[in-house]
Prior knowledge:
Distance between the termini: 29 Å
Shape: globular
Helix content: over 70%
Radius of gyration: 14 Å
Number of helices: 7
Amino acid sequence: MVRKGYIQRLIDELIEVAAKVLRLRTAGDDPAALQEIKAAAKSMVGFDTTALTRFSDASLLGLLSSGGALDAGKALAAGTLLQAQGQIQSAQGEQEASRISWHKSLLLLTAALQAEPSLNTEEWQARIVEVRAALRLEPPAPGG
């Protein structure tokens, strides 16, 4: 029950961050929106999104693990924030940066859903589909 409460708290924080980012983007302030995303990642995960994109995939998963088990809450938070960062980077024409953000987002979201079965919902599956579409990846085969 503690783990479920912890993950729900992170999801609630993500909702607040998403609302702030949306307000900033609507006001045309993408740089402030990116700063909000970076600060949220630092607070929730311990690393800002710039650092998260620089780690190798294996290192990133290792950093978000303890005792060999992935912290699904941190992976979910980081993946969600990197997805948002990728959207802004793409809108700014930073295609390579957005591709890197989306790649890390897909890695982390997929790992979070595998590590925590309660997260395997239509909402989080849809987020993964969105990231795959942004990366122009085909959907996984049925049962895959």
